[in-house]
TrEMBL record:
Gene3D superfamilies: 2.30.29.80. This is DUF1508 domain-containing protein. InterPro entries: YegP-like_sf.
Length: 115
């Protein structure tokens, strides 16, 4: 099963990624100023994953990617895939496991091991 992982960008804004069961990033969200906005959008996505739209694109260098749309709003952009079949497998994993995936918060940047 995949997981939603919250972290901070270099500009101190929050983002989340959805990782596959194998740990590969499938998509990355837009930026959020506040962490609770990020958490709310994860819950919205979990609740409405069945009605999400996946707009598929092909980049100029021949790679495939998708934009995740929910309620007409752009939520996230996927990583680049080499084939359209792999792109579809990424989408299938989101639809299958997205609603029951756990949320992990790594935004605090606290080190587990001290110096």
């Amino acid at each position: 099963m995949g997981a939603f992982v919250i972290s901070k960008r270099y500009n101190e804004e929050y983002k989340f990624v959805f990782t596959s069961r194998k740990g590969k990033i499938i998509f990355t969200s837009l930026s959020y100023e506040l962490k609770f906005e990020c958490e709310e959008d994860i819950e919205k996505l979990k609740a409405g994953i069945g009605s999400a739209d996946f707009l598929k694109f092909k980049s100029s260098n021949g790679k495939y990617f998708f934009k995740l749309m929910l309620g007409g709003n752009h939520f996230a952009t996927s990583r680049k895939y080499t084939t359209s079949l792999r792109l579809q497998k990424g989408i299938d994993e989101i639809v299958r496991y997205g609603s029951m995936s756990e949320t992990l918060d790594f935004s605090a940047n606290d080190f587990v091991f001290s110096d």
